[in-house]
Every structure is written in structure tokens, then in C-alpha cells.
Amino acid sequence: MKCMLVRFGFVAMSMQVKNASPSKTMTASAFEKIADREAALRKLVRLAQENLQNTKRLLYHCIGHDIRFYRFSSRLLPLAGHDYIEGLDYFSLLKDDFYQVGEVVRKHQIRTGFHPDHFTVLNSPRCDVVASSIASLDRHVKMLEAMELDQSHKCNIHIGGSYNNKEKAGRNFINQFSLLDRRLQSYLCLENDDKTFTVAETLAIAEEVGAPFVLDIHHHRCNHEGDLLTDYWPRIVTTWKDEPFPPKVHLSSPRSESQMRAHADYVHLDDAVELLRGAAEVTDRLDVMIEAKRKDEALFRLIKELASHPAVTVMDQASIRWKES
Fold this sequence. Notes:
Blueprint: E1 2-11, H1 28-33, H2 37-64, E2 70-71, H3 90-93, H4 95-107, E3 113-114, H5 127-146, E4 154-157, H6 166-179, H7 182-185, E5 188-191, H8 199-209, E6 213-216, H9 217-222, H10 233-238, E7 248-251, H11 269-279, E8 285-290, H12 295-306, E9 312-316, E10 319-324
Parallel strand pairs: 1-2, 1-8, 3-4, 4-5, 5-6, 6-7, 7-8
Antiparallel strand pairs: 1-10, 9-10
Helix pairs in contact: 2-4, 6-8
């Protein structure tokens, strides 16, 4: 008898909480048009403060719906990293705001983290891209530290491009990862992507650098070499053995046969069942991040659909027990 507790989470935005974007920003061109630079900087700080306040609102929404897994927006700090705002210290100006977000997370034991954008590419052959990527990782980790959240709250990244030689690109990633400050390393986990590095390739690199591996089931569907996930589940779970939280995976469904890489509004029940059945063979706990376009609505709909499955017992609004003989 296999029994697994599964918690579901969603990414950044809520479809139910109105006027609560955690990603309010200003374009670089709009910033330039403000003649008074100090006034422009103050506006950026106000936007960042709104983003953090809205993040708190979203966390309380999570609490009210039993959701204990949530991904922060990576756009909490408008124009962060841009040359225009050099010298602006968001972290000292927003110290209390960051702390309050972290206080909610800690008090209610919510699993959180970030997914830095696709410009974060450690294995790039360009030194400027690598430097920018490291600066992005440092900024994401500083946000977690400002919230007083430890290394169990991860920043999830991909390996990067192949640059016409995937084996060399993989080695470049391993080398760059090894050069990172240990502080940054400890906050990172690695995910397979939908075009370049497969589950097998990303998992092997994660094992080599000692980082947890995040399985993305949708990316695996788009990018594999005939690999069966059953061959990798035990190794995937092992990469999380020293972490306080259980293995985490990403779940989404393709928009259509002709748009395989695009995410659908909701998760197809069959995709969820396939994922849960495989994971239950090797772990008794799993956290599932839903990456569907309809965010928390997709989560609630999936829970309702799973309720009719014979292996599922619904525990609350955002978690189930999977039990199959």
C-alpha cells in the first residue's frame, strides 16, 4: 500500500484576489521621462512597497484556503538590476516590509521561493551575462534573507543554453556553480527545461553540484529522449534527502497539440494522476507547484477533480492523500 501526502501551490498571482498584483513596475522609458530623478526613485520604492503589501495579501489568501506552498514574484523590485537605479538600496528602505512578509511565512509554515527569469544563465559563454546572472541570484537571495527565510526556501533555475555543444555547456554550468558563494549555492535548486537539458541531463548535474532537482512534468513531455520517469524518481527524491521540505515538482498541461510548450489554463486530470502515481512509488510526501495560466483557480479545480479518483482523499482545500494498493 502506497500512501503519500500531497500539497499544492500556485505561482505569484491570484485570480481571486483583486487588485493584488505583486509585480507592479515601471518601464525604463517611463523612468527616463520623469525629470526629477529623486521623484522617480521614490515612485519605484512606492511600487515595490505595494508589491510586498500585495504579497502579504496573497499569503493570507493562501492561509485562508489551506495553501502552504507559494512562489513569490521575481518582480517585487521594479527595475532591480537596471543601471538607471544604481545606488537605490531597496533593502534598507523596505526592511520592515520584507520582514513582515517573512513573518507571515514563518508563522504559518508556508513553503516559498523564487524562479529567476530566463535571463539568469550561469553557463553562458559571455562574461557579462554570467555576471548579470550572478547579480540576479544574489538579489533573489537577498530578498529571502530580508524576509529572514532560510535556505529551505529555494531559488529555482535552469541549466541554460547548449551553445552548439551541450556537453561543454553542462560543464560550464558546473564550473560556474562551483565558483558561486556558498551562500548562493545553498539557496538553489535545478529544473529540467523544455528545449535543451532533459531530466536525465539536469538530474546528473544536480547530483554533481549537490543541488536538489525539481522535476517539471510538462518540460519532460516536450523534451526527452524516450526516458521513462520511473527510472529517475528514486534519484530525484534522493536529491531532497537533506532538505526540511519534501521533493517539489512542477505540474502543468500543454495548451494544445499545436502549442505543446505553452501552458494551458488548467491542469488536465490525467497529467496530475500520472505524476502522483509515479511519485508515490518513492516518497510519502510531495509538494506540487501548479504552473497553469489560471493560477489558484487551476489549483482549486484540480482538487475538485481529484476528489473523484479512488486513490485520493481530500485533506483540505489544497492538499490530498494519495493511497493506492
